[in-house]
């Protein structure tokens, strides 16, 4: 028997075929083409699943289950995509039912960050740990929770939205509509926005010469000693640490798996983040805490989708 994992983002769609032990065998990548609308994207998922099976030499009847991760919010129990910001038209879409009918394979969806947490727990940096927080800091900030050895998603699949912890009253506007969310300050998007706002006022900064600086430019300038760039990363790291310290106080984890493209900024971001975690969390809550990088890289979500399919198939057999 085989399993399918799907990682659906606003830019890229990836489909993997895995064996009955969850080992990835074949991966097919396609552009999502999200701007062309919901039905187009759904059709691309279905076609890419078929292409992956053909390339792998596996027939659909041999696939026990399909797991799909995509940006939230989603309701895994209801099988609903609620309203992801970077997938236009996906509002209250019963994607489980649609994919099951279109592929003939029992299909199960979940938040992509939650599935990345599951992937790292089952096959990556968090193996053997029972209390884990997975956090990724990139374009946005997402998180997944493993509590008592199991994926925890909350009442409606929304648990773990660390990016929307408000850390600065009256801070920058977030895509969720609130102000001062840590995602609006410490994500790649937030860092780039701060650079674009502050560089014109700082004539001696390397960033002023750039028409549209982004987070990678800020990190590069900070490594070259640019004072403004280092200040932006110091601010981002400090507020990221406040949010992380809040999670430490709430969940008392053994392990935080911390990744994402923004972390490549290195010490100018990570040093203030660690200081801020210590300042904003109770010492007893972080006793024995380890903060480690992901082991699965970009495949964490895809592997998590396969593992979720395996879990749901096992549950179906048991019931």
Q: Any overview of this molecule?
A:
- There is one protein chain.
- With 319 residues, this protein is an alpha/beta fold.
- Helices cover 39% and strands 20% of the residues.
- It has 9 helices and 12 strands.
- The strands form 3 sheets. Strands 3-2-1-4-7 form a 5-stranded mixed beta sheet, with helices on both faces. A 5-stranded mixed beta sheet has the order 10-9-8-11-12. A two-stranded antiparallel sheet has the order 5-6.
- Helix 5 packs across helix 6.
- It is globular, with a radius of gyration of 20 Å.
- 50% of the residues are buried.
- The model has no long low-confidence stretch (mean pLDDT 94).
Summarize the structure.
The protein is α/β, with parallel strands linked by helices and 319 residues long.
Write the layout of secondary structure elements.
Blueprint (H helix, E strand, L loop, with lengths): L1 E7 L3 E8 L4 E8 L6 H19 L6 E8 L3 E2 L4 E2 L13 H9 L3 E5 H12 L8 E6 L3 E7 L2 E3 L29 H5 L1 H11 L16 H9 L3 H25 L3 E5 L7 H14 L9 E3 L7 H19 L1
Parallel strand pairs: 1-4, 4-7, 8-11, 11-12
Antiparallel strand pairs: 1-2, 2-3, 5-6, 8-9, 9-10
Element-by-element helix/strand order: EEEHEEEHEHEEEHHHHEHEH
The stretches of 5 or more residues where confidence is low (pLDDT under 50) are none
Q: What's the alpha carbon Rg, rounded to whole Å?
A: 20 Å
| Sheet with most strands: strand arrangement | 3-2-1-4-7
The separation of the N and C termini measures: 19 Å
The biggest beta sheet, please? 5 strands, mixed
Mean pLDDT: 94
| Number of alpha- plus pi-helical segments | 9
Structural class: alpha/beta
Q: What portion of the residues fall into strands of 2 or more residues?
A: 15-25%
Rough shape? globular
Helix content: 25-40%
The tally of beta strands, per DSSP, is 12
């Amino acid at each position: 028997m085989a399993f399918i994992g799907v990682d659906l983002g606003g830019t890229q769609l990836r489909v993997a075929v895995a064996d009955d032990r969850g080992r990835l065998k074949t991966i097919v990548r396609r552009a999502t083409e999200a701007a062309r609308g919901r039905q187009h994207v759904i059709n691309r998922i279905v076609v890419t699943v078929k292409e992956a099976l053909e390339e792998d030499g596996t027939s659909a009847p041999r696939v026990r289950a399909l797991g799909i991760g995509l940006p939230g919010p989603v309701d895994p129990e209801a099988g609903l995509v609620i309203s992801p910001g970077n997938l236009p038209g996906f509002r209250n879409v019963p994607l489980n039912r649609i994919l099951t009918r279109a592929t003939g394979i029992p299909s199960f969806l979940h938040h992509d960050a939650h599935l990345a947490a599951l992937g790292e727990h089952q096959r990556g940096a968090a193996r053997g740990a029972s209390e884990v927080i997975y956090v990724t800091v990139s374009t946005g900030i997402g998180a997944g929770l493993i509590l008592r050895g199991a994926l925890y998603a909350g009442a409606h699949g929304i648990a773990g939205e660390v990016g929307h912890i408000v850390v600065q009253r009256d801070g920058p506007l977030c895509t969720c509509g609130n102000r001062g969310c840590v995602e609006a300050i410490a994500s790649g998007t937030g860092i780039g926005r701060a650079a674009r706002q502050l560089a014109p006022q700082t004539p001696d900064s390397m960033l002023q010469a750039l028409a549209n600086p982004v987070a990678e430019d800020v990190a590069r300038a900070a490594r070259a000693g640019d004072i403004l760039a280092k200040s932006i990363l110091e601010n981002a790291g400090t507020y990221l640490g406040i949010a992380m310290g809040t999670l430490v106080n709430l969940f008392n984890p053994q392990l935080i798996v911390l990744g994402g493209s923004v972390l490549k900024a290195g010490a100018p971001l990570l040093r203030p983040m660690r200081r801020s975690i210590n300042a904003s969390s109770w010492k007893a809550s972080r006793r024995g805490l380890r903060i480690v990088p992901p082991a699965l890289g970009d495949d964490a979500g895809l592997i998590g989708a396969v593992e979720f399919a395996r879990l749901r198939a096992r549950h179906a057999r048991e019931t």
